[in-house]
CDP-alcohol phosphatidyltransferase
Amino acid sequence: MSKLPTAHKFIDLSDYGRPAARVISKALKNTNFTPIHVTIGFIISGLIATICILKNAYWLAALFLVLKSILDAADGELARVKNTPSYTGRYLDSVSDFILNAIFLFAIYHVTESNIWLTLLAFLCIQLQGTLYNYYYVILRTRHNGDTTSRIFEEKTPTALKGETQSNVNILFKLYKLFYGPFDKIIYTLDHKASTGKTLPNWLMTSLSIFGLGFQLLMIAILLILGLKEYIIPYFISTSILIAGFISIRKSL
């Protein structure tokens, strides 16, 4: 099931794992596997990728980074085909991504002997890039297809949906706000009128999708297998210059 109607679909460079994710979700539809199980699967895949980076097994690391992206899409697909949306799954997914991103960059810092402050800056850049993309993407989905768990403004703890407990939602939402709250505030401050502005054209969303987590992990994978691991941290720092450009284009529409 697509997140957007046909007229507003765009080529999402970060969503290359979606076809495989749909196959996985269909295979698991009539089983006892839940979206949470798939989320745990992508956490495990991400941790294995980290071990491979530390062991200099870069082809294997790339494989598990791509698998992580596929499973990251598959948990949401499974929730849709089973019609079991949950805030628990939504926030667990985001919190896990945040932690794994930090672990990935720490591993890259270790094998490249990079500067710790540049590594920290690269991590902040990755998160800010992802926040901008998700901000615009959720606005688009909310306008044109609706979304039961993703919200443009994550301000209040949501009420648990059927099949989940409020205590789990409360804990995960607090973690989400702790990790993502500062980035949300920065992007909202830079473009607080985006939610009431014109619908973003498909070409702009495609351009923005280089900030999607899937594309970010793909770039890490490519640079690893090309023997260019020293360029990973500079890549994320330098591409963050585009944030101002994308926001300026959005405001000019």
